[in-house]
């Protein structure tokens, strides 16, 4: 193969880190590398809940691709992928077509609504910069509207978050911190505002350390969060949501319903005919798809099993970044004519969830539990380490969370 074409689709954690690794390891004489992304920026999905709550501006979260990718080494195409044809080795874009010798799919996640009626139409979800910005503005608009109504409209200042997984809990924590500011800005009495977190399972953060879950729930309840555990969201409509607990249904009126109760792989992958398991490709050990030797999948479009628990690893940025290292290494092997590929071994260094800017919970390294300020410092250190890996000290200084104590 003469100077193979490597195409990377999606510049999330997995895609952009594959590109950044390749630009260090592969010279333009060895391969022609193209990165395709919808926007001219990469964003840190792990900060989107802060943008959605309005506690962090989205310009802190997004990073211009030109600032981290060397366009002398990598062709950047700003376009939207419509489909992939692995048989003819082509990627169909909104505005053209690309052919590849090797493809890396890093198109990320989509919100999963499990067919629940009305969610697509009436609920919001945290998926990207545009949707996060919309949630922030939508909540703010409803607070602004509240004092213009002749009759009291509780639904305008009731915020419902569906799901108490990590996304739901992190978002609810940010909203709880934002509410006092919104109340002051729009002259809304704090005691009138309701913030509910509705979770179908018996506990928040199922499977996480119970002591830390209790800490998080206590801290959030102190800030006014009402937890509804064991309560399934059944329906969403213009008025709000219908929930069910112990076979009893209840309507909660709210103009601010944010669905944070699950994600799946980008539907383009399934629609393009790749084998999927609940929307994600069950990749081989070397991160290639089961059927195609020239297609790698990184990040949330891939699923890998944890042999200890016999369950899939939860999709995380941590795993996506590590997958990018293995994928870049394996691509380098292939273009050098060496088919001895590395097996991907996730190195889970822990899980830390933020509860606002100065509070967090986490289990790191060998089961060390952290909460409060120390966990929050750890969370910022993890995020800062990523920025350093992606774009060096310059990017860290520009976008990092450098104020560890506030
Ligand atoms: P994504 O980050 O999903 O990015 C996909 C990219 O592809 C985007 O740039 C998008 O614009 C682009 N794209 C999508 N469709 C197209 C298309 N059709 N054409 C062109 N481009 C396209 N994980 C952790 O490890 N730690 C955390 O603290 C953490 N916090 C989180 C907080 C929130 C609020 C959320 C929602 C998730 C969090 N996660 C966290 C999970 C983590 O964000 C995901 O696992 C991670 O983002 C997956 O990375 P990815 O590379 O698969 O793609
Ligand atoms: P999740 O699947 O982890 O949690 C979804 C929650 O919604 C579950 O608790 C589920 O019981 C609940 N739920 C589902 N249907 C419901 C219904 N009809 N009514 C009420 N509740 C319902 O999803 P997530 O929180 O979006 O997380 C997605 C991935 O991102 C996970 O892998 C997670 O680990 C990762 N993530 C990690 C972090 C972190 O490490 N700090 C933060 C956010 C997300």
TrEMBL record:
It comes from the Bacteria. One of its GO terms (molecular function) is NAD(P)H dehydrogenase (quinone) activity. One of its GO terms (biological process) is aerobic electron transport chain. Its cofactor is FAD. Residues 5-324 form the FAD/NAD(P)-binding domain. Keywords: FAD, Flavoprotein, Oxidoreductase. Belongs to the NADH dehydrogenase family. PANTHER family: 64 KDA MITOCHONDRIAL NADH DEHYDROGENASE (EUROFUNG), APOPTOSIS-INDUCING FACTOR 1. This is NADH dehydrogenase.
């Amino acid at each position: 193969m003469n100077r193979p074409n490597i195409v990377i689709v999606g510049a999330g954690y997995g895609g952009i880190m594959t590109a950044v690794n390749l630009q260090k390891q592969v010279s333009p004489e060895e391969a022609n590398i193209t990165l395709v992304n919808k926007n001219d920026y990469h964003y840190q999905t792990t900060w989107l809940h802060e943008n959605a709550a309005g506690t962090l501006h989205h310009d802190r979260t997004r990073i211009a691709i030109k600032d981290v990718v060397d366009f002398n080494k990598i062709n950047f195409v700003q376009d939207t992928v419509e489909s992939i044809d692995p048989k003819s080795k082509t990627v169909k874009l909104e505005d053209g077509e690309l052919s590849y010798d090797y493809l890396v799919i890093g198109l990320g996640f989509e919100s999963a609504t499990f067919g629940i009626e009305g969610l697509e139409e009436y609920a919001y979800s945290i998926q990207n910069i545009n949707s996060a910005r919309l949630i922030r503005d939508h909540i703010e608009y409803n607070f602004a509207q509240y004092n213009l109504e002749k009759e009291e409209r509780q639904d305008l200042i009731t915020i419902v978050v569906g799901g108490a997984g990590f996304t739901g809990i992190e978002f609810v924590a940010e909203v709880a911190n934002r509410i006092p500011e919104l109340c002051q800005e729009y002259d809304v009495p704090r005691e009138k505002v309701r913030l509910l977190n509705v979770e179908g399972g018996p506990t928040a953060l199922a499977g996480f350390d119970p002591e830390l879950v209790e800490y998080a729930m206590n801290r959030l309840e102190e800030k006014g969060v009402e937890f509804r555990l064991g309560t399934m969201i059944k329906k969403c409509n213009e008025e709000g949501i219908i929930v069910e607990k112990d076979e009893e249904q209840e309507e909660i009126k709210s103009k601010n319903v944010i669905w944070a109760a699950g994600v799946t792989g980008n539907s383009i992958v399934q629609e393009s005919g790749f084998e999927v398991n609940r929307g994600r490709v069950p990749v081989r050990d070397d991160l290639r798809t089961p059927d195609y030797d020239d297609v790698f999948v990184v990040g949330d479009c891939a699923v890998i099993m944890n042999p200890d628990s016999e369950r899939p690893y939860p999709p995380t940025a941590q795993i996506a970044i590590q997958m990018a290292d293995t994928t870049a290494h394996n691509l380098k092997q292939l273009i050098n004519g060496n088919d001895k590929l590395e097996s991907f071994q996730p190195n889970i260094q822990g899980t830390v969830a933020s509860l606002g800017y100065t509070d967090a919970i986490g289990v790191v390294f060998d089961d060390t539990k952290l909460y409060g300020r120390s966990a929050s410092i750890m969370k910022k250190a993890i995020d800062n380490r990523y920025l350093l890996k992606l774009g060096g000290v310059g990017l860290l200084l520009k976008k990092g969370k450098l104020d560890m104590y506030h």
